[in-house]
Task: structure prediction
Amino acid sequence: MKDFNYYAPTEVVFGKGSEEQVAHLIKKYDGHRVLVHYGGQSAKRSGLLDKICRLLDEGGVFHTELGGVVPNPRLSLVHKGIQLCKEQQIDFILAVGGGSVIDSAKAIAYGVCYEGDVWDFYTRKADAKECLPVASVLTIPAAGSEMSESSVITNENGDIKLGYSNNISRPKFAIMNPERTYTLPPYQTAAGVTDMMMHTMERYFTHDGDMDLTTAIAEAVLRTMKDNIFYVLKNPEDYRFRAQIMWGGSVAHNGLTGCGIHDDWATHQLEHELSGMFDVTHGAGLAAIWPSWARYVYKEDVSRFVRFAVNVMDVPNDFADPEGTALRGIEAMERFYHAIGMPINIHELIGREITDDEIKEMVRKCSRNYSSTCGCFKVLQAEDMEKIYQMAK
Ligand code: NZQ
Ligand code: ZN
Result:
């Protein structure tokens, strides 16, 4: 069992009408001049953005707005946000949206407190010492950024998507009203659930199998998400199911399912190259990679994959054939992805065959010019990455 620090300082304000508390919460965390950061259209269309601005006005909180965050959020808008914050002496950033908006908000928050280019943090040229406080009104459960220490940004100059993690960016509070997720289309709902399940699975596939409590929590998260997604797709406006998925997204990525274990993250790193190059939805990209990763690595610990097959995917345990049980677990996961409208390979994801040159380029980026490995369950060298991309073709 690995030693660990569990640090999850975000105040979660969960439930119907929770956004009513926004002005009070910002003042509680010492915000006076607020940048309200948002995405494309959804928060405007639903009236949420207007409501937040009205609540801030009524609470006497100065605010200015910056919209336009796209999925796989771009560095150019981050630069624009930093400039705006400096001009307006902003001291608090409120993200109204999903992972992309929150990640963009975190990047702006770092950049305002730094003399150089904020991209330095993502390329590991520098480490952030301070950042503005960030908080969110979450509209899509998926990335878990509302409680996480991570931010993932795409530099359009070269289509490079990189993450940066630092505890100082963990949001002060997260307002979560499941009713605000009723408008999510089925594809985004399913991609979100795929992402949160993968945040759990990146930690579940570990060699620290003696941390049974963490494993049991992870299995509970996985089973609950796997069952609830079907209810949500059938009844998008049923509060009970939307609520469990919303909370699941945070629990999956606030560190709880990683206590005492070494985590993997190879599927995420392999996927980031896909969404960096093809601008696909992150959760769908994960579904396209995971089955191939799983088949490539399961022999590192067949018993772990058997446990996953039996306890999560409801596969009968064939004690005489552990490998067969493990492989049937992976097949069951593929059937699940298809049942919720997710792809299980790159062809299904991007709608055409990926070329060998494109794979080579993704390997180059994923291995940081052949200088770095990824994963922990099985440490992947550049040639392993290439084989997995080829299997996932
Ligand atoms: O832009 P709008 O119009 O708001 O539409 C968004 C967007 O198109 C839409 N949407 C959001 N809430 C909605 C809604 N549509 C209808 N009703 C609502 N209530 O959903 C689309 C996707 O939004 P996005 O924020 O991109 O989704 P998600 O939360 O999945 O975030 C994905 C990003 O997070 C990164 C991913 O790489 C990707 O860039 N990640 C961040 C992590 C972190 N910070 O800890 C960890 C993750 O592993 C992930 O890498
Ligand atoms: Zn993810």
